Amino acid sequence: MDGHSAHSTAPVRSRTSHSQSPSHSASASVCSSAHKRKLASDEHPPTFPLSYSDTKDGALTSNDDLESISARGADSESDDDSEDVVDDDDEEEDNEDSMRVFTTARLENNSNSRNKKIKLENSSMKIDSSSDIPNPKEERGGPTSSVPQPSNVSSISGIVVKEDIVKGIFTENLQTSGAYSAREESLKREEEAGRLKFVCFANDGIDQHMVWLIGLKNIFARQLPNMPKEYIVRLVMDRSHKSVMVIRHNHVVGGITYRPYLSQKFGEIAFCAITADEQVKGYGTRLMNHLKQHARDVDGLTHFLTYADNNAVGYFIKQGFTKEIDLDKDRWQGYIKDYDGGILMECKIDPKLPYTDLSTMIRRQRQAIDEKIRELSNCHIVYPGIDFQKKEAGIPKKIIKVEDIPGLREAGWSPDQWGHSRFRTLNASTDNATYRQSINNFMRTLLKARFMLINKFPAFACKQLMHDHPDAWPFKEPVDARDVPDYYDIIKDPMDLRTMSKRLESEQYYLTFEMFVADVKRMFANARTYNSPETIYYKCATRLREEEMVECESGESA
Ligand SMILES: CC(=O)SCCNC(=O)CCNC(=O)[C@H](O)C(C)(C)COP(=O)(O)OP(=O)(O)OC[C@H]1O[C@@H](n2cnc3c(N)ncnc32)[C@H](O)[C@@H]1OP(=O)(O)O
C-alpha cells in the first residue's frame, strides 16, 4: 500500500484546446473544462519521491548535469516538434518551473537516498525485424499474388473470361488489410528501417534517457493542460514509473507513463499523449501495443487500469479498454489514485497475442478466411459487366436475355427460377403476352377508357395521354435546361412522357411492370420535389399521382 502513497490523488487530465486531434475536436473542447479534477496536492503538495543513484550507473551527480539535460531536452523537442518549437514564453516558464521542482526535489531527496540504488528494468524494446510479411504491394497484384490464377483463359460454364481480366478482378477484390493493419504495418516498416523506435525507460540518470523523458514530459504538459506540470514531472521522473516512448529520428513524439504494480500484476497508466502534429496517425495504437507487450513480457502484468479523460475514452476503447472492471478489487483497490473526473477503464493483457505484430496475425487470418471462402463459393469471381450500351431514353441497343448475364448460371440460377422473382418479368422474348396485357391494363385504367385503342397500342395510348389528359401538359417533354437552368442540379433522375413513350415503343426497356410504374412515380415525384405546393406543376402532379395510385393497384392486379 505504501507504494502508491506518492500520488494518492491526482489532478484532471485534459487536452489543450489548441492542440486537439483533428477528428475529435468537438468532444475534446467540451470535455477539457467539463470535469476538472481536484488536485489534493494543490493544497498539500505531494512529496517528491525522486531518488538518485550514484555515478556508478550513470546517474546525475550535480545540478549542472540536470540543468544541462534540461536544456538539451528542451532543445531536442524544439528541433522536431513544431508544436513545442513554438514554445511561447509561457511554455518555457512552465518548463523552467518543472525543472525547478525537479531540481529542488532532487536536492531534497539526494541526501536521503544517495545510497538507495533502485534496480530498474530499463530496456529498449525489441523490434522484431524478422519479417516474413510480403510487401502488400506485391500481394495486391502481380506475379506474387497467392490467389490461384487461371492458366491462360478461364472458361467458366461457357463464359469466356480472359486471364488478365480475372487476374485484375481477383487481386483487386482481395482485401489484404484494413485501415488498422495498414497503419500498423506502415509503422512497423518505419521501425525496421530505423526511423522509428519504441523504448521503455524510467529515470535511470542516463543522459539520453533523461533527454527523452523530459521531451515526453513536455508533450504531456502540452497535451494535458489541466494537469499541473509539477505533477507530470513528478510522475514521469518517479523511479517507480516507467515510460514507453515513441522516438522518431531521435526525438520524442509521444509516450505513456505507467506504474507497474508488480506484486499485483497490474499497471496503472498515468499519462498518455502523442504530440499534436502526429495524432491520429496510428502512433497511439502502436504505442499501446508496445506497452502491452513490454508490460506482459518484462513486467509480468496481466491488466492495465487507467482513469481515462472523457475525451480519450474512444481511443482507449479502441485499444481494448472497457469501463467494466473485471480485475478483482483486492488486486487494485487502494493502489491506484481516485479521480473525480475521468472514467476508470481496464484492459486485460492477452497472454499470447503478438501485440507488436498484430498486423501479420490479422493478415494471415484474413488470408485463411479468404481461402476457405474460395473453397466453398465462387463469390470472389467478378465477371465482366453486361454490355449495356444505350440508345436514347435509356433503351438498350440490343435485347439482353437474363440467361446471358455473365455469372448468373454459375451462381446457381436456372430458368425455372423465373417464377420466384419478386417482380413479374415482362421480357418480350419470354412473356410477350403478359407484358402487353399488363401494360395495356395499366394504361387503359390510367386513361379511364378514353382511348379505346389502348389494348392494341399502348405506346400510342401513352402519346394520347401526353396530348389529351388535362393535367398531363407539364410532363409531355423533358424539362428544357435553358428555361429552368437549375432543374438538373436538383433533379438527378428526370422523367417525362416522351421518354416513357419511347421506352414503351421500343418494347425493350420495360422488362417488368414495376419498371414502368417506377417511371410514372418518378415523373410525379420530380415535379413535387422541384416545385412548391402552390404551383400548377405541383398540383398537376398531385392530381395525376392520385389517379396513378389507383391505376398502379389495378395494373398490378392485372
Ligand atoms: C490516461 C490518459 O492519459 S487520458 C488522456 C489521453 N491523452 C490525451 O487526451 C492527449 C491528447 N490526445 C492524444 O495525445 C492522442 O490523440 C491519443 C494518445 C489519445 C491517441 O493517440 P493517436 O496517435 O492520435 O491515436 P491513433 O492514431 O493510434 O488512433 C487510434 C484510434 O483511436 C481514435 N482516437 C484517437 N484519439 C481519440 C480520442 N481522443 N477520442 C476518440 N477516439 C480517438 C482514432 O481516430 C483511431 O481510430 P480508428 O482506428 O478507428 O481510425
Share in helix: 40-55%
Largest β-sheet summary: 7 strands, mixed
Count, helices? 20
CATH top-level class of the domain at 175-360: Alpha Beta
Helix-strand pattern: HHHHHEHEEHHEHHEEEHEHHEHHHHHHH
Going by CATH, the homologous superfamily of the domain at 175-360 would be Gcn5-related N-acetyltransferase (GNAT)
Shape type: elongated
Mean pLDDT: 69
Do you know the CATH topology of the domain at 175-360? Aminopeptidase
Extended strand count: 9
Organism: Macleaya cordata
Protein name: histone acetyltransferase
Region (Disordered): 1-153
Domain Bromo: 467-538
General description of the model:
The longest helix has 25 residues, at 89-113. Residues 1-9, 14-174, 426-430, 447-457 and 551-558 have low confidence and may be disordered. This protein has 20 helices and 9 strands. Among the domains are: 175-360, 3-Layer(aba) Sandwich (Aminopeptidase); 394-430, no CATH class; 432-556, Histone Acetyltransferase, Chain A. It has 558 residues and is α+β, with helices and mostly antiparallel strands. The radius of gyration is 36 Å and the shape is elongated. Strands 1-4-5-6-7-8-9 form a 7-stranded mixed sheet, with helices on both faces. It has a two-stranded antiparallel sheet with strand order 2-3. The structure holds acetyl coenzyme *A (ACO). Belongs to the acetyltransferase family. GCN5 subfamily.
